[in-house]
Amino acid sequence: MAGGKLTILPLIRKIELIEAVESGKKQKIVAEEFQIPANSVSTIMKRKDHYREQFYSGQVDVNKQRARLANHDDVEAELLRWLLRLLKNFVGKNG
């Protein structure tokens, strides 16, 4: 990026941006408010359904700049169950 500052918006800010544009504000004004290039606003608006899905699913930390989703939900769930059993046994023996 030649001379410009790279700004990555967390998911919550992208949702705020989408709502601002949909409320009737011009994309150029919104870009200035969020201190990002106008073409970034356009890109976010093109992917608004994707961002809303992530936001409302609750699977993503809305304050993270990049969403990291589990690729194998079943493995992640089983790992969590195993960890909880392990912690329960540990607390039971030491508590």
From TrEMBL:
- Top-rank lineage group of the source organism: Eukaryota
Q: Which InterPro entries match?
A: Homeodomain-like_sf (IPR009057), HTH_Psq (IPR007889)
A Pfam family of the record is CENP-B_N
Residues forming the HTH psq-type domain are: 5-54
Q: Which GO terms describe its molecular function?
A: DNA binding
What is the protein name given in its UniProt record?
A: Tigger transposable element-derived protein 4
Name the species this protein comes from: Plakobranchus ocellatus
